[in-house]
Amino acid sequence: MAQMFDEPVVGIDLGTTHSSVGVWRNGHVEIIPNDQGNKRMPSYVAFTDTRRLIGDAAKNQAAMNPTNTVFGAKLLVGKRFSDQSVLTDAVLWPFKIVAGPRDRPTIVINYKGEEKRLFPEEILSMILARMMETAEAHLGATVEGAVVTVPACFNHFQRQAIKDAGQIAGLKTVRIISEPTSAAIAYGLDKKGSFADERHVLVFNLGGGTSDVSLLSIMSGILAVKATAGNAHIGGEVFDNRMLRHFIQEFKRKHNKDISGNPRALRRLKTACESAKRTLSSSTSASIDIDSLHEEIDFQSVITRSRFEELNMDLFGKCMELVEKCLRDAKIDRSVVDDVVLVGGSTRIPMVQQLLREFFDGKELCKSINPDEAMVYGAAVQAAILSGECNENVQDMLLLDVTPFSLGLDTAGGVMTVMIPKNTPIPICKEQVFSTSSDNQESFVISIYEGERRSNNFLGRFELSGIPQAPKGIPQITVRFSVYADGFLYVSMEDKTISNKATFSVVDQRGTLSREDVERMVRNAERYRVDDDEYKRKVVARNALETYAYRMKSAIEDNMYHPELPPTVRRTSVNAICRAIEWLEMNQLTEVDEIEQKMKELERIIETMRVMGPVVGVDFGTSYSSVGVWHNDHVEIIADEQGERRIPSYVAFTGTRCLVGDAAKRQGTINPIITVFGPELLLGRRFSHTSAQSQRKLWPFKVVTGPSGRQLIAVNYKGEEKHLHPEEISSMILAGIRDIAGAHTGSTVNNTVIAVPASFDRSQRIAARDAARIAGFNVMRIINGSVAAAIAYGYSLHRKGTDLGPNNVLVFDLGGNTLDVSVLTIEEGVVEVKATKGENHLGGDDIDNRMVDHFVREFESKHNKNIRGNIKALRRLRNACESAKRTLSLASRATVLIDFLYEGVDFFSTITRAKFEELNMELFMKCMDVVEKCLNDAEVNKSSIDDVVLVGGSSRIPRMQQLLQEYFDGKEPCRSINPDEAVAYGAAVLAAQLAGEADEKVQDMLLLDVTPLSLGLENPGGIMTVMIPRNTTIPTKKEQVFSTHYDNQESFSVKVYEGESVRTRDNDFLGELVLSGIPPAPMGLPQIHICFDIDAVGNLHVSAELKSAKKRAKINMNDGRGGFSDEEIQRMIRAWSA
Fold first, then answer.
1. Which pLDDT score, from 0 to 100, does residue 97 have?
2. Where are the coiled-coil regions (predicted)?
């Protein structure tokens, strides 16, 4: 019967390795993601000196804190410490398990410097509480109850332990259902209406710690369980442990060392085994590569799929025995089974699938439901039914479950009389009449058992007293066994001759915890919650103050925030910030209220430095640049004195002057070696960088190596050779843009938002910022070009009021030298970047290069002359190819006509659109690869994309548009915004918002950007530990605990890198942080907290802290390796001002 609830009821899959929560809402089930965006949370709980961690945070630090990181607690509930399965698992678990009261397994941890002993139910309650918090945050309402899944093989005490865990968590457990039954509900709802006749479905559930099989019949919304079978000790964890033992032996054989006593080594090896197991589901072999696994010995090995199968074949065989047993109990032949449904992550193992197919005579296995989400999906549906959900899709579903074990009582001679056989449909009530076994017997005692043999699970002893004296066999005592829909057993005895009755509830026996235990744990759980809330508030407050203080200090000191401020005001502001930072470091244990008050004080001081004057948005392109400004409630793209709204990114040097833009490009064919273009591609790159080397081969001007391996551009200016940094050349382009904006607005322009390619790493962005500073700009924000275009598109929707629903947008920005692709969600003014992917050397210039090469070969074929060494001829030919490319966007052929191209020879040719497409098809397909990778990174299906926005001049190429349209199943690309101006437009909108100058539509827009590349630190062996993965929404802060690598280590070095390679040598080195003054201690004992903190602007701060010794070090990575000092910036400003 449905119950009435005022608040939502959810479904929870409480898994051995992962847990998840779902809810029925708006006519369907929503699997709720946690604060990390993950729909599955690791069933891990960790304890540190300062706090408790649950889920992802707990698992992420498990290798550094193995003895205080608890997992697999579900395998312990309802069991005794002396059970063989507990003793077997305890050997491989890094945390400590001891025997508690009544032989209950008890987990020993250290929390805030104090040893604590916790029952498994307490650990599970913490996981359930986090599931409840996740659901409440998503729903915006209090969760009243939950349907929780358990393995089908769980006995009464294990099920009661789960209910106890829910009660400790403050959660009302509305119903406990078996995992395969829950999965069958999901399958039944998915296939509802598809089955006219009865259909027999076998659900095979192979999860992290258990294996269950259920056979059901499904027809017209009725799901009747026919039989169920399970094994509480077969699952992914057991497969991992087999692999773990295999590699422990291999390490011992190779190095004569036993790592089984090293918890950290076991944890790291176990993690590697988990990863290898997943790899073997799609590959025939997997590698294990662990640096300094034990006593600084590296461990490398390979395991094949066949070897993995050999290690676990007996377990796979036991799984198939469960299938046979379930069919046998249901009295159904395998040939009658219509569908075999796979549930649980371990069903992805190829051998498991192969054995099932062979057993069912080649039948294809059903994979139509997500094996990781099926249980929580079904639990959420059952929760909807029990809470009275009116949707017809669920209300006419009926679940008929069964008892997983036989229930009976002990009679004379130690034989169990079965009252309710296993696989009996519930609810059920069975009664039987018994009598006394001796004369004048005054009481009747029965022992109640669960299982298939007398030696199975003892549930309790029950006595009926006050029986009148009579010869044995005369009293008639009726024993009734009742199992209700909740699956729990209730027993009553009655001597009807005298109306004497007694009742017994297995629920009340609490084979694991007493009522006092549960109440005590509820109080402890509340203390944990209070501790967690207080810690979160303190962390949020400290992070907010620290981030704000360092960001403002850096901006003021670098002359990036209001350079027009008087020195006295600047000094006063910096001194106030320094005092706030010092106060924060000296008051580590201060209360939240004090931190918030300090934040308000600092904000009041900084408030005096509001942004003044016009602000502009700059599209700093490799081929063309442009600038926009907010004026009269709209963005104006500013034209230069020639009326052009795009300025070529060219700088030329002559004997008398320096030319920028159109003037520089026009004389590029005459003086190619002193005409510099695309300097943006050299920013932040060393002379030895691979991309720089390939680019230099195509440029007519000279690039040489300078101090510290920097690239310098050699030019001849006023008869004197000069070596200029790419930042200096770029600053000339930006200074020209600043002058154009100043002339248009009639005032000095100091502040800007600059858009750069998405492929730019942190060093390149810092170099772009330096170029802007040399040009006299204060850079408020640097953003990706594709994101700027998305802002333009999002603003156009927001202004019209057409962004009420979530719009998934893909921005395809094919410019002069780069391709940027971003996937975003736009809703009610919120522009949320899901993923971004950039590629250098994939743009209009690269397409031109293919055409140039084609005509060079044609000229050589026609005239037997090679023009590759003639810079002027190549420059003229390139200009003609650029023109032909634009023509081919409108016409089917284009003509190339150049007088006196080389040695007095004219060159005349034509090129068709088909030939042009043939020359560049490889590049076009690479563009599509970038699109696909970006969608994969965003975890968005192409069918979910609502709009494809084209940006960049090269996006006009018909073949490119055709490929995009075909890829997106005929969807017309969006052409509502100007592809040449979208980036500058979006940058101008953001600039206006940051300056507080725009209308309400702009001001209530919100940009949620992401990190373009992964950020991490170097481990011994040159391996990068990723702290913040690429495409992580910013602002973000990630912390991880590390330790020393040898005894009495006095300092700890943190080398910070950016990139996607596993090896740091292939990534970009950002800087190094050293924490000194570590007290002498054995290797691995000091707990060093490394924190990576990125604010909304993208500024990265890295800190290392040894809290036990109150040692802390911090570095600002925004100066970056290769960034110019203030003195160098000022020198360049003075040089070019002169």
1. 92
2. 585-612
Residue count of the chain: 1138
Of 743, 575, 712, the residue nearest 647 (C-alpha): 743
What's the pLDDT at 202? 92
Say if 518-611 and 1013-1126 have the same CATH topology: no
For residues 794 and 777, what is the distance between their CA atoms, to the nearest angstrom? 27
Residue 1134: helix, strand or coil by DSSP? helix
DSSP 974: B
Low-confidence ranges of the chain (pLDDT < 70): 1-6, 190-196, 390, 411-413, 453-455, 499, 502-514, 562, 564-572, 589, 604-605, 607-613, 691-698, 802-804, 995-999, 1096-1097, 1110, 1116, 1118-1123, 1136-1138
CATH topology (fold) of 405-513: Substrate Binding Domain Of DNAk; Chain A, domain 1 (2.60.34)
* Alpha carbon distance 930, 1097 (integer Å): 25
Torsion region of 458: left, alpha or beta (phi above 0 gives left; psi -120 to 50 gives alpha): beta
Q: What's the CA gap between 820 and 128, in Å, rounded?
A: 42
635-642 long-range contacts, CB within 8 A, separation 24+:
635/792, 635/985, 635/988, 635/989, 635/992, 636/744, 637/981, 637/984, 637/985, 637/988, 638/740, 638/741, 638/744, 639/740, 639/744, 640/740, 641/740, 641/743
Q: Which residue has the tokens 């802290």?
A: 1105
Angle at 608 between CA 602 and CA 613, to 5 degrees: 135
The CATH number corresponding to 518-611 among 1.20.1270.10, 3.90.1150.10, 3.30.420.40, 3.40.50.2000 equals 1.20.1270.10
Sign for the CA dihedral angle at 673, 676, 677, 683 comes to positive
Regarding beta strands 905-912 and 1023-1028, do their DSSP bridges make them parallel or antiparallel, or are they unpaired? unpaired
Amino acid 611: pLDDT: 43
Distance between CA atoms of 674 and 652, rounded to whole angstroms?
6
Tokens of 329: 């109990």
Rounded distance between C-alpha atoms, residue 1096 and residue 259, angstroms: 44
Relative to beta strand 751-756, strand 615-619 is parallel
Q: How far, CA to CA in Å, does 800 sit from each of 405, 810, 981?
A: 63, 20, 20
Q: Which of 248, 305, 1135 is CA-nearest to residue 775?
A: 1135
pLDDT of residue 5: 64
* Phi, psi torsion values for 86, nearest 5 degrees: -70, -45
d(CA 369, CA 349): 16
Residue 344: phi and psi, rounded to 5, are 95, 140
What is the rounded distance in angstroms from the CA atom of residue 338 to the CA atom of residue 602? 70
pLDDT digits (tens, 9 = 90+) for 898-920: 888 888 888 899 999 999 999 99
pLDDT of res. 452: 77
Among candidate residues 56, 26, 23, the one with its CA nearest the CA of residue 38: 56
Distance CA 289, CA 273 (A): 10
Q: For residue 203, which of 401, 19, 488 has the smallest C-alpha distance?
A: 401
What is the per-residue pLDDT for 246?
93
Task: Classify domain 9-235+314-387 by CATH architecture.
Answer: 2-Layer Sandwich (3.30)
CATH number of 615-844+923-1007, picked from 3.40.50.720, 3.30.420.40, 3.30.1330.10, 2.40.50.140: 3.30.420.40
Strands 830-840 and 1006-1008: parallel
Q: Which residue has the tokens 């490799």?
A: 622
Tokens of 348: 């992805």
In this structure, CATH architecture of domain 1013-1126: Sandwich (2.60)
**What is the structure's pLDDT at 996?**
59
- Strand, helix or coil at 965? helix
Going by C-alpha positions, the residue among 781, 803, 806 that lies closest to residue 792 is 803
Residue 170 — left, alpha, or beta (φ > 0 → left; ψ -120 to 50 → alpha)?
left
Output the 3-class SS for 577-590. HHHHHHHHHHCCCC
